[in-house]
Amino acid sequence: METLVLTEVRNQIAYITINRPQQLNALNKDTIAALHDALAAANDDASVRAIILTGSGEKAFVAGADIKEFADFNIAQGGELAQKGQSSLFDFIENLATPVIAAVNGFALGGGLELAMAAHIRIASSNAKMGLPETSLGVIPGYGGTQRLAQLIGRGKANELIFTAGMLKADEALQWGLVNAVVEQADLLTHCEAIAAKIVQNSPLAIAAAIKCVNAGFQDGVNGYHVEIEEFGKCFGTKDFKEGTTAFLEKRKPNFNA
Question: What is the pTM of this model?
Answer without folding.
Answer: 0.96
